[in-house]
């Protein structure tokens, strides 16, 4: 059976995008559909993380983003990456505007279709945004999960995926030259998860990253010896903390998330 992954991305609850997606998908009985909802998306940084995750999973994106800039970002990204998207709000806004010669307010959240998990999910997404990439280390104690990893080990996409499961996640970059927050040592080691990857994979990912910015790939950031030193530091740190070490080289975001949730005895079923 063919499988389709559908993202519902919204600056509100995401209920509208989800219902449009489900209504369309209900007509295809021979396809296995997996839905992921990403509500309350109002910033470029969090949207970029979701788009990168969509690229990895080859997802179709249904979106209701009132902010034209964010909506256009989805359209441009999917066009560049060969993905598909359906804008559930901008076209209706334009249709009404053309008919009435009135301009839409462009204010997010004027309609809320609230469900049982809405506020928990929003709180988790907000927490992930506020505590991404080592920001606000004073909040680490409030996290359900703390993710550690060197650069480009998919910390942010993993945090977003787990936040979509109503889990408060903080992620912290590590490395020989990076100051580790003191708060780490007061956290239950079972809540901390350390990510690694292969040297070859990280080198390839980092070189592609540099090229995307129009920069020279021959830098310490993508140097083999430098990456080896970073990974050696990470393994030593994880052993010192006593946390679970996960090599993400051959794992999808879902697989890594499942390992983490099962380690914490958290229900891995879709909420």
TrEMBL record:
Q: What is its EC number?
A: 2.7.11.32, 2.7.4.27
InterPro entries annotated for this entry?
Kinase-pyrophosphorylase, PPDK_reg
Q: What is this protein called?
A: Putative pyruvate, phosphate dikinase regulatory protein
Reaction(s) this enzyme catalyzes, per UniProt: N(tele)-phospho-L-histidyl/L-threonyl-[pyruvate, phosphate dikinase] + ADP = N(tele)-phospho-L-histidyl/O-phospho-L-threonyl-[pyruvate, phosphate dikinase] + AMP + H(+); N(tele)-phospho-L-histidyl/O-phospho-L-threonyl-[pyruvate, phosphate dikinase] + phosphate + H(+) = N(tele)-phospho-L-histidyl/L-threonyl-[pyruvate, phosphate dikinase] + diphosphate
Give the molecular function GO annotations.
Answer: kinase activity
Task: Report the source organism.
Answer: Apilactobacillus xinyiensis
Q: Which residues cross the membrane?
A: none
Q: What class of enzyme is it?
A: transferase
Q: Supply the alphabetized keyword list.
A: Kinase, Nucleotide-binding, Serine/threonine-protein kinase, Transferase
| Entries under HAMAP family matching the protein | PDRP
State a single Pfam family of this protein.
Kinase-PPPase
Q: Does the keyword Kinase apply?
A: yes
Listed binding positions for ADP are: 149-156
Q: What does this protein do?
A: Bifunctional serine/threonine kinase and phosphorylase involved in the regulation of the pyruvate, phosphate dikinase (PPDK) by catalyzing its phosphorylation/dephosphorylation.
Q: Tell me yes or no: is tRNA processing among this UniProt entry's keywords.
A: no
Task: Name the family the entry cites.
Answer: Belongs to the pyruvate, phosphate/water dikinase regulatory protein family. PDRP subfamily.
Print the organism lineage.
Answer: Bacteria, Bacillati, Bacillota, Bacilli, Lactobacillales
